[in-house]
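User: Could you check the structure of this?
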Amino acid sequence: MATSITNTDISATSLTIGPSGNVITTVDESAASPKVGVGTTTPLRKLHVNGDNTSGAEISLTNTSMSTDRKTMNWFMTGDKAHWRLLNDAQTAGGSSISLDYDGYLTTSKGTVQTTSSNSNTYVSTNPVNTWVEPSSSYRVAITPKYNDSIIYGDFMIPMSPQGAANILMIINPWYSTDGGTTKTVITTGQNGVSVRNNYAQSWFRSSNGYDSNDMQNHICKFQHQPNTTGTVTYGFYFRSEGNNTTYFNISAGDSSTWGWSASQCLELREVRP
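Assistant: Sure, the predicted structure tokens are below.
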């Protein structure tokens, strides 16, 4: 049974419609700040929606002039969290949502999805001649992609103190692993099949005047990689030299109060979805 009230002035200061627990209530209609409650007879705000599950405590605004479920905004509660969600397209049409969690973090299915970083103050030295070596297993950073079509962008900042001669060529090359670093695959971003040249995503370098025990090189290595997985992927880097060249990472070879140094290594990853 439905009741229609049209163009009626109700002078009461409150009005309740519906049975207990499923009501629409107005409070202090004549006051400067009237309140409306849905599911409650004691609204605390100008609009107060109360319920014990998502469907029972949800406010939705939908543009009905467009196709079903397009351009819908929802506010709802789940457990002890409040959510805001914007549905850009019908889910059946492959649409995705943008949601703002209660703690202020913005999660999105497009653009930059997440970032993570690792800082290490582990001090090691190594002298790999014409062979790849991971200086330390502490020099790693891991990420768990939220989407299997995301691209991972890496920015590695690696301070070191090489001790080789001026003509010694060195190289840093990032690698990735889907088993926690047990199996490492060198990341390549160049073009294959260019004569016998190597295809790497690397930082090549040498010095024009040799090294002393306190010299620093701070190398920035950038790369991109598409892991095609939502499982955890670990990233690190290999190092090698073309000749004898003991190299210290994160610390100078010399222990000098004037020019000796130590520095933190930073490895940063960003998940980006086109």
